[in-house]
Structure formats: structure tokens, C-alpha cells
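REQUEST FORM: STRUCTURE PREDICTION
Request ID: SP-0412
Submitted by: Lab K.M.
Chain count: 1
Length (residues): 132
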Amino acid sequence: MKELIGMPVMVHPQLTKDPYNERGNVGIILSSNPDHDDNFVGFSEKKLGVYASDALLVLKPADMLMKARSIHSDFIDIDKVIRHILADHPDRAMNVVRSNPTILDDVTMSLAEYLERGLHELQQRENKGRSR
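STATUS: Completed
RESULT:
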């Protein structure tokens, strides 16, 4: 799935089995095979892991984060996440989330849910609109 390549993801912090020992770490999707639910994720120091889409967290779209911002007591970090997303720096946004686990559930969703909702297609259309 080409639209996932380059997307920053976080390995779910509560993942029970992680043979690559990257639980809670942020990486980038390098390749994806949806037929087998394999997502190849690159991490720092040239490490590579293969994860199912329900083991990876992605950022919710900015419009969904606005609701979280209005109800969460830690709205300052949620604002940082939104600003990084809007500035097209999702990797920086993901690092804010990593440094503040209290906002994790409000600003991320599993890659599986992201794909089920068709948000990857919406994101692709938005990115094409921005590049014009």
C-alpha cells in the first residue's frame, strides 16, 4: 500500500509480544503488504521490524484531534501535536505523543482502525490538494 510508505507509527506500548523489542518506539513504514497484514517499519540505528496493523499506532487526523483538545486536561501537548500535523511534521507530532503517554489514546488509533475507516484515502486526497 503505497500511501502508507513514509508514515510515522508507534509500536503499541502495551504490545504483549514484540520480537523486535521496539514497544513504544516510533518508526517509519518502509513497505506494506496488506494481503498478509505485514507492515515493515524502520527504526533508528537501521533496525527493521514487521508488525500487523493492529500493533501499530498512527496519529488521528487533525480535525479529530480538535475534539480531544477541547476535553483533555493536557491540551497544550495536544495543541503541539495538531500544529506539527498541520505543518506536515507528523514525525515530530508522534514524538510529542511518545513523551506524554497520557494523551496516547486521545491522539492515536491503530493502523488497522485507520485503514478500516478509509482515512488513508482521505489523507492522500488532502496531501494532493496541498501540493497544488
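NOTES: Strands lie at 8-11, 26-33, 38-43, 47-51, 56-59, 108-110.
Reviewed by: T.R.
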